[in-house]
Amino acid sequence: MLFEFGIKDIIDIVLVALMLYYIYRLMKASRSMNIFIGIMVFVVLWLLVSQVLEMRLLGSIMDKLVSVGVIALIVLFQEDIRKFLFNLGAHRRIKSITRFLGRDKQQDSESLKKIIMPIVMSCLNMSKRKVGALIVIERDMPLDDVVNTGERIDARISQQLIENIFFKNSPLHDGAMIISHSHIKAAGCILPVSHNLDIPKELGLRHRAALGISQESDCIAIVVSEETGGITIAMKGELKIRLSGEKLESILTQEMM
């Protein structure tokens, strides 16, 4: 009897391919590509031994290793899996569905403008004066661990306050400012530093810290360079450099809606 290849088989192959792709992205983001390659080699050998060659003894041993190995991988990569599932739930299409169902109300443009404009104007002023700054805007993923490393402020967002905090003689100017729910939550915070080797050498520690926090959460990190005055955004593990005020406002408006 010939094998019948139908629409279900196509869907099955596509779903498995998508699953492998997202596992690949997860491993790549956590710098565990060698582990991913090793797992794929083991899976191929397991299928070869148990399904093709039908070696019962070796196949049963490998079956036990697979069942135990899945649990071991979950324990080993529990933090990465948690972030992956969170990012999946925070995906734009998923969020649009929840908005449609009334579970996630979109901010109106006026209130959003009151949050964005002080940030944009302060970044432009600091850029002109070449004052270094690192501003992190919290979104869906809480940054409480980062907030606890700095000084709590809990003040309304204002251009003057942002510029005063990052003034060169300010005791909090070296750390990161965390903005959450239209408030400056904390300043002088310590961020995880990215070890990505592809970062241009002219970018400093602030840029590495911004990239590091964007790799570990869904936040938006804004950097004003102390050397060049350039404005950079780190988001989803990527850097967007040399931004104008209009481009900065456009990105923040689009991403914070």
Give the SSE map.
Layout (H helix, E strand, L loop, with lengths): L6 H23 L3 H20 L3 H21 L1 H12 L2 H9 L8 H21 L3 E5 L6 H4 L3 E6 L2 H7 L10 E5 L2 E7 L15 H12 L3 E5 L6 E5 L2 E3 L4 H12 L1
Parallel strand pairs: 1-3
Antiparallel strand pairs: 1-5, 2-4, 3-4, 5-6, 6-7
Can you tag this structure with a few keywords?
single chain, 257 residues, 7-stranded mixed sheet, 7 strands, 55% helix
Structure description:
There is one protein chain. It contains 10 helices and 7 strands. It has helices at 7-29, 33-52, 56-76, 78-89, 92-100, 109-129, 144-147, 159-165, 205-216, 245-256; strands spanning 133-137, 151-156, 176-180, 183-189, 220-224, 231-235, 238-240. The protein is elongated, with a radius of gyration of 23 Å.
Sheet with the most strands? 7 strands, mixed
The N- and C-terminal alpha carbons lie at a distance of 56 Å
Please identify the structural class as seen in this structure: alpha+beta
Radius of gyration (Å) = 23 Å
Concise structural overview:
With 257 residues, the protein is α+β, with helices and mostly antiparallel strands. The protein has helices at 7-29, 33-52, 56-76, 78-89, 92-100, 109-129, 144-147, 159-165, 205-216, 245-256, and strands at 133-137, 151-156, 176-180, 183-189, 220-224, 231-235, 238-240. It is built from ten helices and seven strands.
